[in-house]
Amino acid sequence: MRRTVIVSNRVASITEGSSKGGAGGLAVAILETLRESKGLWFGWSGNVREAPLDTPKHSAPTQANPFETVTVDLTPAEHSGYYNGYANRILWPVLHYRSDLMEYHSEHFRTYQRVNANFVSQLVPLLKEDDLIWLHDYHLMMAPRDLRQAGVKNRIGFFLHTPFPSADVFATLPNHRELVSSLCHCDLIGFQSPTDLRSFEDYITHEAGGQVHANEEFEAFGRQFRAQVFPISIDPDGFASAAEESERSDVANRLRESLDGRSLMVGVDRLDYSKGLPERFLSFEHLLDRYPENRQRVTFLQIAPYSRIDVPEYKLIRSRLEGLSGRINGRFAEVDWTPLRYINRGLARRTLAGVLRHSRVALVTPLRDGMNLVAKEYVAAQDPEDPGVLVLSRFAGAAHELKEALIVNPLDYENTGEAVQRALSMSLEERKERWSALMDTIRQQDITAWRRSFIAALEAT
Ligand code: ADP
Ligand code: G6P
């Protein structure tokens, strides 16, 4: 079997991935993937040093992490220009349809290019002739061109974990042509949803002057490649067992006792403006306003660990949420009931699974999201005899697959509140029907299917 070399900005280990929440969907999915298929994972160590080590740091496989990792450090200037500046203040907002939040400086693009080139120059000596190279996410869009320029002939795949926005929106990025022409050096480009692929096709034909042939074959910038949809997923049965076991844990007992028979609504997200958290808080406020019978009877637990704390837009959203949560609790709390429990820490994965299982309703209402793994985790965590209801944004990639969820437009917070009311009063029969259809879908397209189909398509190019 050929070795798969995974390259991403963030590299996580099982200890980190399982005990600290908030590392995001990419880390969770790659950990699951490598647990099964071994291979090598190359990326940033998470360390920022004035004088980074001359050579990358190798860690041998262990029982917990049955794969090799090779990591590099960033200097403070690289961290600020490449990670915070270009990846998170320029690319991330545009990819999530928020060009209005883009804070463009050409210097950040130069740093981004330099860091992509450094990653590649440290990676190339490690490569073997028949390795499959699998690049992940928006931090590394210049890497395909650099790899080819370094003479690498291996098959190269790229998977974008975020949405690919409509061509008009992507073209608001001053460097859109450089980025896409670099991506075209791949053999295969993977997207989360048919909407993303359609936007990319549109970009290739209308902005890049390229062509899209049958069988998802593309021609642009003098290169030929394929682009396809590979919806990312989870290990549903593994997550379900973790949820069942966690039901008997100390935290689950404390949670159950503290609720005193009230229904639990849950939200779990990195604290990111793409997740629609203020709108979600407003929908909860609407629920309590419009349906006062829920007061004292329902508790909403929002878990939102801090993310990208140096980026100003993340600080702003954080203070907005602090204001809203204070207002909602100030308006509705009673001496013995806090309507909204707002926690800014990650939970251990197993604990999280138990919390999801115990929740009657999950609110997964991003304004835009590549996939959203929490939606799938919530379904997998449910008790088949008494499952809860998923309220899901139509703008999450997951909405393409999870059609039996209650689908909402998160910008219409009143309507989201109505959907929650419907979820809270849904009959057991309807909950079971919806849940079993959702769980079938997740089982059919799980994380193993995602990895296998991407690798098979890359090998076939
Ligand atoms: P994103 O990748 O944008 O963060 P996803 O929903 O796709 O969004 O993935 C988030 C992942 O991180 C999920 O696997 C989720 O369980 C995990 N996660 C998010 N917040 C927490 C938290 N507070 N505690 C534990 N895990 C978390
Ligand atoms: C999203 C991105 C990932 C990123 C994660 C966490 O899932 O698609 O690439 O790793 O968020 O963000 P961070 O900036 O902490 O890596």
TrEMBL record:
Pathway: Glycan biosynthesis; trehalose biosynthesis. Pfam families: Glyco_transf_20. Keywords: Glycosyltransferase, Transferase. Its EC number is 2.4.1.15. It comes from the Bacteria. It catalyses: D-glucose 6-phosphate + UDP-alpha-D-glucose = alpha,alpha-trehalose 6-phosphate + UDP + H(+). InterPro entries: Glyco_trans_20 (IPR001830), Trehalose_OtsA (IPR012766). One of its GO terms (molecular function) is alpha,alpha-trehalose-phosphate synthase (UDP-forming) activity. Probably involved in the osmoprotection via the biosynthesis of trehalose. Catalyzes the transfer of glucose from UDP-alpha-D-glucose (UDP-Glc) to D-glucose 6-phosphate (Glc-6-P) to form trehalose-6-phosphate. Acts with retention of the anomeric configuration of the UDP-sugar donor. Homotetramer. PANTHER family: BCDNA.GH08860, TREHALOSE-6-PHOSPHATE SYNTHASE. Belongs to the glycosyltransferase 20 family. This is Trehalose-6-phosphate synthase. It comes from Fodinicurvata halophila.
